[in-house]
């Protein structure tokens, strides 16, 4: 138990897996690095972190209110969250390759554009509201401190991930351009982990 977080190690692993899922955030990092080098990639990383923090705390406001007002409903959200992760994983496994999103990243605006790309994803709030309760122990949580540790953990892991992606992209250049084969493999791995986490966390409650 760590600041009221149930299974902190699994929480960290889950975040790392989610960061690996190909999407607008990863494309923003790669594109910004390709145009602005390491500084561009790191600026975009900070933009992603900033957008994520805004969405996370909006989600926390809803989760914290539910936890304080009606604990049985909180347990219901935990079950729904586990089901949501499993459903999302299944959709990813069954999805067919589609058109890649095109991001028009402009030089000198890496932070702002990555921040906007992250913030303009309303589904992220629903995701965090489903995700956070899965790792909160209602009996031992420390209020906002628990969510603050979760948010800080995500920010640190996102920065480290963004740094790695930026350095690799800058070093390998064209070799690290979006590969359909690698993208599909990462998606399947992430989907399998998501289903596994959903089942494991649902059965452990």
| Share of helical residues | over 70%
Provide the structure class.
mainly alpha
Provide the gyration radius in Å: 17 Å
Shape annotation: globular
Largest sheet: none
The H/E string reads HHHHHHH
Secondary structure: number of strands? 0
Kindly report the average pLDDT value: 76
Number of domains: 1
Strand content: under 5%
What is the tally of helical segments? 7
Distance between the termini: 15 Å
Instruction: Give start-end ranges of low-pLDDT stretches.
Output: 99-103
How is the secondary structure organized here?
Layout: H1 8-19, H2 24-69, H3 71-94, H4 110-119, H5 123-131, H6 144-172, H7 180-204
Would you mind describing this structure in some detail?
76% of the residues lie in helices and 0% in strands. With 205 residues, the protein is an all-alpha fold. The chain has one domain (8-204). Helix 2 (24-69) packs across helix 4 (110-119) and helix 3 (71-94) crosses helix 5 (123-131). The longest helix is centred in the N-terminal third of the chain and has 46 residues, at 24-69.
